[in-house]
Design brief:
Length: 686
């Protein structure tokens, strides 16, 4: 194509959704002498027209398509160009379905010149392309449109072929086959609820279960074999495997325990090596668990906020599904080397080969076990008999505090743990979103979670470790192996305070033990040397320094507990301080760390660095934190600790910001939070 502007052709402009540039290039083409250029008939090397590029563009905008349709109508070539095919037999409608451009597909379908069931050279329809790419809303729109056409034809007494919705390709594959190839579980669930048969085989005899098995898609295998109901939510809270935590913690505890019975010059190096390897697990991705957004088709990159000239959308010459089918159906060398996928809930020695979600919990349990071991040793070892008798009350208090602490932890992590605030509105939300898609209204991707298929309340977030969306998510805690959110934040704060208290108590206990041991060692040294000096209770710094080697060799367990206690105390102190400050300000840790990502927490800084008298550049204006949930110290505290009364807010049902004082006329409204979801988008971005 010879007509271009600044290096961009009409094909580029149509793909980028740059409507003004398309009009400009159209005018330039009409002005070419001696013969104007017919852009409607122009094709690239693969036979794609401007309509193909506009349909497969990076933004689901219809301005360019409407303009092209007007030109087709003016030239009376709608029936020829609207359903034009490229070299692969793909129509603009098929390209729109493949790209997930719902509004464009609806615009094309409304013209009446588009064949809904048009097939490419492999016999794949638009519905097949939508299923293969994981475009659930597009697939629902196409199946509903096909069903309406069949009902209309039946009412008009026209012949209707009794075939499966979406049709079959030349290899007898339907939308169910391609949905399984995409690996997008919600789409497979949707098709099963519509009555699609999972056991139906294609021309090669391959069923959907075969596809899931060859690709090691455990979630699809359970779904297709009826182990999981198709009507259930696509995600669920990952369960903590206590035995896995024990398997990871027990070896570390065994090595830490060598400080009690093994010589220090063997025990210490061993502990350092194992600790280094254990802590490295925190920096590695988990080899198990529910990836928060692992599904067949990733969400499309949002190009709407970019200037059209910067979108740089690349349109493929064709979008044949044969490559996807070949990768999914044929035995893959990489997959053939892999063992059969294990049950995610399975427990065994195989879980020790790579980090697990419970690894951090196991490490934490090992250190708690070491503290408990020291406590038991103080009571049982004759070496500390005098100390246990003289400090029996303090030891009793220490044991009581630790028991309460462990009970709270066990309640949070294992025994009927409080729900952190899981969003459980899947059934109602997916129905609403499907109704919108049936009307060619694409659900706002910023207002719902594509993995859980639920509408996201404000301050909620999807946790990739837990696998679900959590209301008012604070953070994911490795110690309890679950999220801290709206439902369990108060209990976790109590747990944190108890953790803080336990560390203080054990630090004092270890210090007392070492002080008593130092006096005893010094007394033995003085007695062995036959000297009468230094027998008083006070010891000089030099006296303590002299006894350090003996302390390390005879009381390494106590020293190890004290050293780790001091380090952990610093970390816990910062955590407690962070939580207290956030509670006072009505912030979450997620919001505190990522506030620039959330529009409801940001506002432009009025103090711009630009010169006076000049309009500040939007790119140079730094945003500032503006928390609309901060109602003052007392109200923030009351909201956090109370779940009933006027101060309580159920963040599982809050979809809009609270009204500010300047926006209300009634004092009661200052703390009211609307549950309407029809307001401006304020949801978290997953």
């Amino acid at each position: 194509m010879d007509v271009n502007y600044d290096g961009q052709t009409a094909f580029d402009a149509a793909a980028n959704g740059d409507f003004p540039l398309v009009v400009l290039l159209w005018g330039m083409a009409m002005a070419v002498q001696p013969q104007s250029v017919d852009l409607l008939a122009a094709k690239d090397k693969s036979g794609n027209t401007l309509a193909h590029y506009a349909a497969a563009g990076g933004t689901d905008t219809v301005d360019t398509m409407h303009f092209l349709m007007q030109q087709m109508q003016a030239s009376r070539r709608e029936n020829l160009l609207m359903d034009a095919r490229n070299d692969a037999g793909e129509t603009p409608f098929i390209r729109a379905a493949h790209a997930g451009n719902l509004r464009l597909a609806d615009t094309l379908l409304r013209t009446g010149f588009v064949d809904l069931m048009a097939q490419d050279k492999q016999g794949n329809t638009a519905a097949h392309h939508a299923a293969a790419q994981g475009h659930l809303w597009m697939l629902h729109f196409l199946l509903e449109a096909e069903q309406r056409q069949k009902i209309a034809a039946s009412s008009a007494q026209q012949p209707v072929q009794p075939t499966t919705l979406g049709g079959y390709c030349h290899k007898r594959r339907n939308v169910m086959h391609y949905a399984c190839m995409s690996g997008y579980k919600p789409m497979v669930q949707y098709l099963m609820t519509r009555g699609f048969e999972a056991k139906e085989a294609d021309a090669d005899g391959t069923t959907c279960l075969d596809v899931a098995t060859q690709r090691n898609l455990r979630s699809l295998q359970d779904l297709l074999t009826d182990k999981v109901k198709a009507s259930d939510p696509p995600t669920h809270m990952r369960k903590t495997r206590g035995m896995v935590a024990v398997l990871h913690g027990a070896p570390l505890l065994a090595i830490l325990a060598t400080t009690y019975w093994l010589v220090w010059w063997i025990s210490l190096p061993l502990i350092v090596v194992v600790l280094w390897k254990s802590l490295s697990a925190f920096r590695q991705p988990h080899g198990h668990g529910h990836g928060g957004h692992s599904h067949g088709a990733a969400p499309k990159k949002n190009n709407a906020n970019l200037h059209p000239s910067k979108r740089n959308v690349s349109v493929a010459p064709n979008v044949s599904l044969e490559g996807l089918a070949a990768r999914s159906m044929a035995p893959d060398q990489e997959n053939s080397k892999k063992k059969k996928s294990r049950d995610p809930a399975s427990v065994g020695l195989h879980t020790l080969r790579k980090p697990q979600p419970e690894t951090a919990m196991g490490i934490w349990m090992a250190w708690v076990g070491l503290f408990t071991m020291m406590y038991i040793v103080l009571w049982a070892d004759p070496t500390y008999r005098d100390f246990s008798h003289s400090h029996a009350i303090f030891l009793g208090i220490t044991g009581g505090v630790e028991v309460v602490f462990l009970l709270v932890w066990f309640r949070l992590a294992f025994f009927c743990p409080t729900d952190p605030g899981t969003i459980t509105t899947y059934e109602a939300d997916v129905k609403t979103m499907l109704e919108q898609a049936g009307r060619a209204e694409t659900p706002d991707a910023t207002k719902f979670c594509r993995t859980c298929l639920v509408m996201k309340p404000i301050r909620s977030k999807h946790c990739s470790q837990c696998g679900v969306c959590i209301a008012r998510l604070d953070h994911h805690c490795a110690w309890i192996n679950r999220c801290v959110g709206y439902g369990n934040h108060r209990s976790f704060f109590v747990f944190l305070l108890l953790h803080f208290t336990v560390l203080i108590v054990y630090a004092v206990l270890a210090a007392l033990v070492l002080a008593d041991a130092t006096h005893d060692l010094h007394a033995e040294r003085v007695k062995s040397e036959g000297s009468s000096s230094g027998t008083n209770d006070s010891l000089s710094a030099m006296d303590v320094w002299v006894e350090i080697p003996s302390l390390v060799s005879k009381h390494l367990l106590i020293i190890m507990v004290l050293l780790w206690d001091v380090m952990a105390f610093g970390a816990i102190t910062m955590m407690v301080n962070q939580h207290v400050n956030n509670i006072e300000k009505n912030l979450t840790i997620n919001e505190q760390m990522n506030w620039k990502r959330y529009t409801y927490l940001t506002q432009p800084n009025s103090k711009s660095k630009s010169d006076e008298g000049k309009k500040p550049d939007a790119a140079s204006v730094e945003p500032t934190l503006s928390n609309p949930f901060d109602q003052g110290f007392r109200k923030n505290i009351a909201e956090f600790f109370f779940r009933s009364g006027s101060a309580a807010v159920d963040y599982r049902q809050v979809f809009a910001l609270p009204l500010r004082d300047s926006e209300i006329s009634s004092p009661v409204g200052s703390s009211a939070m609307s549950t309407s979801s029809g307001n401006t988008d304020l949801s978290d971005v997953v």
